[in-house]
Specification:
Radius of gyration: 18 Å
Number of strands: 0
Shape: elongated
Oligomer: single chain
Helix content: 40-55%
Order of helices and strands: HHHH
Length: about 80
């Protein structure tokens, strides 16, 4: 079963001689431009992910990071339901 995301290829096909480009693809290089025009696409994805996680927990979409962390900690510390 294919789980294709619209706008992305079904699978990555390596190109010969592409190894040098792949070595430059690090998380540091990916996240360094966040907060700039170049990193706006990643900021947008993070905002969408944050809203989806908040919705999954039934929290407001614009919940402050500190509030979300406090709620997650409380959930973690609560006894497991039996």
């Amino acid at each position: 079963m294919s789980e294709v995301v619209p706008g992305y290829p079904d699978r990555l096909i390596p190109r010969l001689g592409h190894e040098r480009d792949l070595r430059a693809r690090t998380l540091t290089n990916l996240y360094n431009p966040r907060g700039t025009a170049e990193g706006a696409w990643l900021d947008s994805l993070h905002a969408r992910l944050d809203a989806a996680v908040a919705a999954a927990y039934g929290w407001p979409a614009d919940i402050a990071e500190e509030d979300a962390l406090a709620r997650l900690l409380a959930l973690h510390q609560a006894p497991a339901p039996r």
